[in-house]
Sequence to fold (210 residues):
Amino acid sequence: MGLSFSRQELRDLLVAWLALGLAFTLLLQPQFRSALLGRVGDLTLASVISTLVVSLLTVGVGFLLHELAHKVVAVRFGQVAAFRADYRMLGFAIVGALVGFLFAAPGAVVHRGRISAKENGLIALAGPVTNLLLALVFLVPFLLLVGTDGFLTDLASRGLQINLLLAGFNMLPFGPLDGRKVRAWSNVVFFVVAVPSILLAFAALFLVPF
Fold:
């Protein structure tokens, strides 16, 4: 079974990517929030566009590759898998960001077919591991640009921060999160991945203040 995408799935991925980018732009740009709410503030179009691009290339890409990793591994195990956006939660994320609060649950890859606990655990693990690998990618320019300012510095620091937060949050062993599925398969694998991921996520909170 090869990897394929329906029109609905491509639309859901695009909408989720753009909505997350907008929500994080609103969160990181209080002047933009103020302008949209009718309050006059010090706002430039260049700063909004820069923040939007950084958001799309960090949280947006981190989210997309996280979900695509789930799908790739699920298809590898013979599953029928597709991403489905949660439009209600995407709307909530944007509205919440307008008042300075963000909780993003943009959707998830759903898959069906006969599967073992190990395969289900590996499908779940693929997402957080992808975010950890992306964090490593952003770490190199982050270290090279320490002490500097500008677009690339923002991109590197946000990319590192967001991907560490995505990995740590998703490895929590609760509800529909990936950590619960990984732990149901293997406590050893769960603790080996979850403990450093969660600790790094806490450290990332202090990397760049929101």
